[in-house]
């Protein structure tokens, strides 16, 4: 039996695959999740699997909560103010079931969005200076994405206790 295995053992290391150097292939691939305002509204929520990892969520149309039982209803198209209002309402039941959450205080809020040459200025009726980095990025990325498709828009957020930014989306 050893005689039958010996040729296999001797040939196994020389199976014809040679070592190669690392081959440079360029930058990592990027994926466009959804063009701004073409397929829906893009919101950013926090993944429950990672404390700071933001995940984009595309809402096909304006989704509004209709009651305290967690029911959601579809409405018309959205712009930057509507996208931020949706973000502040928090994830839908399906999004929560998928492991997404918000680090922002949720509920109906008043806000204003001003678009100018310097970027997006958001005014909200919540304290913002004590928000976690993930919560700040939720606001910044959603506001930037609602304005442009490339998320490079500078965003300033003014709250009841001060101002954060201008900052850029880090996702």
Topology (SSEs and partners):
Layout: H1 2-11, E1 41-47, E2 54-59, E3 63-65, E4 72-74, H2 80-89, H3 93-97, E5 100-101, E6 111-116, E7 119-124, H4 133-147, E8 155-158, E9 163-167
Task: Offer a quick outline of the entry.
Helices cover 23% and strands 25% of the residues. With 171 residues, it is an alpha+beta fold. It is elongated and about 80 Å long.
Q: Which descriptors would you attach to this protein?
A:
single chain; 171 residues; alpha+beta; four-stranded mixed sheet; three-stranded antiparallel sheet; 9 strands; 23% helix; elongated
How would you describe this protein?
A four-stranded mixed sheet has the order 6-7-8-9, with helices on one face. Strands 2-1-5 form a three-stranded antiparallel sheet. By secondary structure, the protein is an alpha+beta fold. The chain is elongated. Residues 28-37 and 70-77 have low confidence and may be disordered. 28% of the residues are buried. It has helices spanning 2-11, 80-89, 93-97, 133-147; strands at 41-47, 54-59, 63-65, 72-74, 100-101, 111-116, 119-124, 155-158, 163-167.
Summed over residues and divided by their number, the pLDDT gives a mean of 75
Determine the strand fraction and express it as a percent band: 15-25%
N→C terminal distance? 60 Å
Number of helices: 4
What structural class should be given to the helix and strand makeup?
alpha+beta
Coarse shape: elongated
* Strands in their spatial order, largest beta sheet: 6-7-8-9
Largest sheet: 4 strands, mixed
Approximate helicity band: 10-25%
